[in-house]
Design goal:
- The protein is an alpha/beta fold.
- It folds into four domains: about 55 residues, no CATH class; about 160 residues, Substrate Binding Domain Of Dnak, Chain:A, Domain 2 (Up-down Bundle), CATH 1.20.1270.30; about 150 residues, 3-Layer(aba) Sandwich (Rossmann fold); about 210 residues, Rossmann fold.
- It is built from 24 helices and 16 strands.
- The strands form four sheets. It has a six-stranded parallel β-sheet.
- Helix 18 links the parallel strand 11 and strand 12.
- It is globular, with a radius of gyration of 24 Å.
- Bound molecules: FE(4)-NI(1)-S(5) CLUSTER with Oxygen and iron/sulfur cluster.
- Iron/sulfur cluster (SF4) binds next to loops.
């Protein structure tokens, strides 16, 4: 069985994806949808969270119908099994984001020691603000501040005492809620390690206690590792400002050397961007018959260089194999996360060179050129040079670039950029919300998942929200989906309700603001913290909501949990593997509400998901004494 058995509409709403998936089928190149079909029927125990491989007395499974085993060999019941599995999922997600953040900190440290040629402090004002936040001596030089900040951030991973510094950005009422529950995040690595410890056989066997640690671990991601990744990326490469660009497979150019940047980190990709502008490399490309060197992004590495450099996006998660089927990609350069092991297999069918650059992420069939802060600049040059030389090896017969008109998009909406657009304070936004012109704000974030028609959830929810005068911010793979749908052009304000439309037209901004990669979901929680502080309320009182309609990854699980623990109601479009425990499910869907003022909902139908978010936002307006359409 392959994806021919799914109707084409079931795969994607995007014309370029459909055209390339059809081409893959004709060429006999296997894709994610073929492999998904071959996994059917997927394991029902695993889908419910009722299987356990934590120790080798097992594997064990619990019968959800009560006819087979009700406990694992160690005696774990459904609550323990489900809570442990979810806790480990969140720990892996938090570890991934946070280890990415650590690479940024190490590079900042190397910059401060003059050991990272090509890297520099690009946003000294942000460095100053962070230095002040960490209580560093204001008289230090920029370099000394960078060194001291890097060391202070390394300390956030371990922490000898106290809690994560960035969490102090939140209203005191929120921190008090965390204290009451015992979930204030301590060191980033501490929380991840403790989650793994507690889920070892025979440690924490209280599902509530396990879930509380899962929340604390997620908070260590959001207000720790991910936030560090975002802030230090801004210090090193610049805080994003509104930048025009383009999106879809049409950004690949038949007559140019094409390099795709894929993964999550800006460390190597920024150096590739720089090298691609070097006259000697451009001259060599022309000598070989190419009109230029063209860069395109995929996934969150793509979002990083889109936000700061306007590099166009070739696509999101489910486009990573298909992009290579165009036959015009000289090189794909990856760092880590969300890079399917299948991708180098597809690259091998073409002339495409697949470069891995992180010692943490090696792939058979890849050319491995490891990054370090010391060699990053030279590595960027080497990667571009190898791609240029590879142009001559293209197979003209294998070129298949669908006729995809690129779509314009505006990205680069950091919190700083949004506040600047508002005239320097959140007050105009708050005024529009108080007046009811904008009903509230929503974050639509997350992945693609072959279980869901690609980008249908993202675009349907987003359209519904803006039509109801709700300002949407997005990140990650959602941001690519809505850009392809044309929602990131100022003209898309015409699709918004009259209130939001007027605000967008006055500010010349789209109704859907691209806030970055997935670690940049921390920009969103910083924004809600700023709004709550400005209003003098806790986050859960704000007319805001979030959705992850097509999520797949452990990182997304961590993000969802830190959003809820921060006070943001979050709707999931794909059911997490928790339904095997009624207790765990109830806690996530309602039990957290009482303690955190927020909880999850699960709603696969994007229209109904949007309706839940709208109702939530109108309810919060009522709570604040504002006019409500409830
Ligand atoms: O960190 S949205 S598929 S690419 S996990 Fe991955 Fe999901 Fe995309 Fe970015 Ni985020
Ligand atoms: Fe089975 Fe318990 Fe081991 Fe899990 S931890 S595999 S339930 S014995």
């Amino acid at each position: 069985m392959d994806h021919r058995e799914k109707s084409t509409e079931a795969i994607s709403i995007q014309a370029d994806t459909l055209a390339l998936a059809e081409h893959a089928r004709r060429q006999g190149v296997e894709t994610v949808w073929d492999r998904a079909a071959r996994q059917e029927p997927q394991c029902g125990f695993c889908a419910l969270g009722l299987s356990c491989r934590i120790c080798v007395m097992g594997p064990c499974r619990i019968d959800p119908f009560g006819e087979g085993p009700t406990h694992g060999i160690c005696g774990a019941d459904a609550d323990i099994m489900v809570a442990r599995n979810l806790g480990r999922m969140i720990a892996a997600g938090a570890a991934s984001h946070s280890d990415h953040g650590r690479d940024l900190v190490e590079t900042l440290h190397a910059v401060a020691h003059g050991k990272a040629p090509g890297y520099q402090i690009t946003d000294p004002a942000k460095l100053e603000r962070l230095a002040a936040e960490f209580g560093l001596d204001p008289h230090l030089s920029v370099t000394e501040k960078a060194k001291a900040l890097a060391e202070a951030l390394m300390e956030e991973y371990g922490i000898k005492k106290g809690y994560l510094t960035f969490s102090k950005r939140l209203p005191a009422a929120r921190l008090a809620k965390w204290q009451a529950l015992g979930i204030s995040p301590r060191g980033v690595d501490w929380e991840v390690t403790e989650m793994l410890h507690r889920t070892h056989m025979g440690v924490d066997n209280d599902y509530v206690n396990l879930l509380l640690q899962a929340l604390r671990c997620a908070l260590a991601d959001g207000w720790g590792g991910s936030m560090i990744a975002t802030e230090i990326s801004d210090v090193l490469f610049g805080t994003p400002t509104p930048t025009p660009s383009e999106v879809n497979i049409g950004v690949l150019k038949k007559d140019q050397v094409n390099i795709i940047l894929h993964g999550h980190s800006p460390l190597v990709s920024e150096m590739v961007v720089r090298a691609a502008q070097e006259p000697a490399l451009l001259a060599r490309a022309r000598e070989l018959g190419a009109a230029g060197i063209n860069l395109a992004g995929l996934c969150c590495t793509g979002n990083e260089v889109l936000m700061r450099k306007g590099i166009p996006m070739a696509g999101n998660h489910l486009v990573q194999e298909l992009a290579l089927l165009t036959g015009v990609v000289e090189a794909m350069v990856v760092d880590y996360q969300c890079i399917m092991p299948a991708v180098p297999e597809v690259a091998a069918c073409y002339h495409t060179l697949f470069f891995t650059t992180s010692a943490k992420a090696k792939f058979p069939k890849a050319v491995h050129l490891p990054f370090s802060p010391e060699n990053g600049e030279a590595l960027g040059r080497e990667l571009v040079s190898r791609a240029v030389e590879n142009f001559a090896r293209r197979h003209p017969a294998k070129i298949h670039l669908p006729d995809a008109q690129t779509v314009r998009q505006m990205s680069g909406f950091s919190v700083e950029a949004i506040l600047r657009a508002l005239g320097g304070t959140p007050e105009p936004l708050l005024h529009a919300i108080r007046a009811g012109q904008i009903r509230g704000a929503a974050a639509v974030v997350g992945c693609n998942n072959p279980k869901v028609t690609q980008d249908l959830g993202h675009t349907t929810i987003t359209r519904e929200l803006i039509a109801h005068d709700i300002l949407v911010v997005d990140t990650g793979c959602t941001a690519v989906a809505t850009a392809k749908a044309g929602l990131k052009q100022p003209e898309a304000a015409a699709q918004a309700g009259p209130g939001l439309r007027a605000v967008c037209e006055a500010l010349k901004i789209p109704p859907v603001l691209h806030m970055g990669s997935c670690v940049d979901n921390t920009r969103i929680i910083n924004l809600v913290a700023a709004l709550a502080n400005a209003l003098g309320v806790d986050v859960d009182q704000l007319p805001v909501a979030a959705a992850a309609p097509e999520w797949y990854s452990e990182k997304a699980a961590a993000i969802g949990c830190y959003a809820v623990a921060t006070g943001v109601f979050t709707v999931l479009g794909v059911t997490p593997p928790v339904l095997g425990s009624k207790n765990v499910t109830e806690l996530l869907l309602s039990g957290l509400q009482e303690h955190l003022g927020a909880c999850f909902a699960v709603e696969p139908d994007p229209r109904k998901a949007a309706a839940l978010m709208i109702r939530h936002i109108e309810g919060k307006r009522q709570g604040l004494g504002l006019d409500s359409r409830l």
